[in-house]
User: Fold these one by one.
Assistant:
Number 1:
Amino acid sequence: MELKHFSHEHPLMFIQKQIHAPTADSSSGEEEEEAAYCCLCEDRVEGPSYCCTDCRFYLHKTCAEFELALEINHPFHPKHPFILLPKPPHRVGIFLCWFCHMGRRGFGYHCALCNFNLDVNCALFQLSMVGNFPTLVNVLSTSIH
Ligand SMILES: [Zn+2]
Ligand SMILES: [Zn+2]
Ligand SMILES: [Zn+2]
Ligand SMILES: [Zn+2]
């Protein structure tokens, strides 16, 4: 089973369970290095997931299948729409989330005009708190041409 995800150039293979290969070198206590992290939510990947092993790109099954809006209007920043980016727009390689002030390496919503960032969790969580769902300008599954 393969999945073509908009965020990655290669097809992603489905894996039922993450297998942690033992490290060949003897650097002890560095097992965390071998763990896989989801590129969307940045949680550890242990259950069913999609991955590109060459790039060490992982997504939880649920994250990969979650229909993220490519563009949202957010009450925190009503002037411009946010565009979903699969990786940070800057060479620094990190999104600084405006809301939680966490640096994120994965997906984020970005306003290029204001250089305003929200990570996916904050964008969606805050929207659900506001009880005001985003205006789905574009829904992923219907907007790939
Ligand atoms: Zn995830
Ligand atoms: Zn790849
Ligand atoms: Zn955040
Ligand atoms: Zn803006």
Note: Residues 130-145 have pLDDT under 50 and may be disordered.
Number 2:
Amino acid sequence: MIDTHAHLGKVIFGADPLTPEKLIAFMDTYGIEKSVILPLVNPEEEHYFYTTEQALEDCRSYPDRFIPFVNVDPRRGSNDGNYDFYPLIKEYVDQGCKGFGEILANLPAHDKRLKGIYKACGALGLPVLPDFRYATSTNGVIDQIGMPYLEEVLCEFPQTIIIGHGPSFWAEIAADVPGIQENYPKGKVEKPGRVDYLLEHYPNLWADLSAMSGYNALARDLDYAKRFLEKHYRKLLFGTDYFVGNQEPHIIDLLNNVGLSSSIKQRIFRKNAEELLKL
Ligand SMILES: [Zn+2]
């Protein structure tokens, strides 16, 4: 398996840092061969930064186990929406980074500064991973119910692959979105939501199934989850969002027991990541 969403380092005040050795022990327990390491560089999220430089260093220590992403705060440079992120991000790509994220900056998804990042990443062939939240959140990339900002981005940057992730993204698995205060809505999916529509209509939208948000979206209605996974399996990525060292990856059991064929499971657990990240 390839975990497309993991973290390392000391990011939470008072918590022990997640060392490479601890993450590898977790990976070995569950049969994960490689993990994508996502830097955290936006000041709204967590208490300490874990920079791209740290990710590159940790990945160099375990090149067979870790895959580095680059992360740059969108307010760097001129902070006016005109900054050219391409040279900065390319320098990290030249050092081995395979994707961009995760973005937790508390800006609207269609903010001009974020668009500068989507543009550079499209030109560099890097997928971009934002953590989507609704407008009331004080961290994470903001969208409205129905994800109009995300759709604007998908239209404007067809070369840029966006990996959907986070509570507001996955709340939209159902058409009936209960409201912006409910991060993990429960109940049957009576009618497919905007996630289904956008995955169907935009080749540049993918999604990762990590964290409580991805798990909850599937676990709330397993019959619908099976249909959803069978419809979109070519653009779905297994992930855990492991970052504090005590999470159980319930998503593994769910994917193994929901009734998928072995070839679909292979795509979600591994092959899609290999192709997307050109491993
Ligand atoms: Zn994460």
Note: The chain has eleven helices and ten strands.
